[in-house]
What does this fold into?
Amino acid sequence: AQKVTQAQTEISVVEKEDVTLDCVYETRDTTYYLFWYKQPPSGELVFLIRRNSFDEQNEISGRYSWNFQKSTSSFNFTITASQVVDSAVYFCALSEAIGGADGLTFGKGTHLIIQP
Amino acid sequence: DTGVSQDPRHKITKRGQNVTFRCDPISEHNRLYWYRQTLGQGPEFLTYFQNEAQLEKSRLLSDRFSAERPKGSFSTLEIQRTEQGDSAMYLCASSSPLRLGDEQYFGPGTRLTVT
It folds into this structure.
């Protein structure tokens, strides 16, 4: 069975600090997809990134970067120079089935608090 | 291009009543998903449609839950004989048919409170 673990329940940092959110996953499939979503206080889940299991290349998008390591089954998310607007709950998610027929399996989320 | 919409945004009902929620996906998306999110947890997958076909429904929480997508466009989720434990946020998402394992785009959710 697939599982996603986000061990950090809550992280609080001061603005401009860098912060890394951890995600560890379990799956028996060789083909799978990993995602990060942001849920701000307004409540709507916002898609951030998608990664397939064959692409271990790290990705950077502005202040956001993602480190995917199959050897440790991890897909960590780093925010550089954090801002107050980054405050939200961040979810890591996994999809095994081709076409997503099994839906996404989410972790419990990490509540990120950026203090001014 | 409008996003996923859900209606109503909030629903308060008394225990034992039936409720129905509606989801309108992004127009070109043929895949539609329902999730439930309780406080402090990640969304929990409930069911999945590809066009009008419900391809996965074993995750529906009980036989009181049912979903339809009659014409392959909007979908409804019905909960019969609601219980206090059904209080949660119900989320709908849709995804494109263009590639496998595509990202899902979520609506704002319907918050259900059962009193």
About this structure: The CA atoms of residues 67 and 78 of chain A lie 8 Å apart. The radius of gyration of chain A is 14 Å. DSSP finds no helices and twelve strands in chain A.
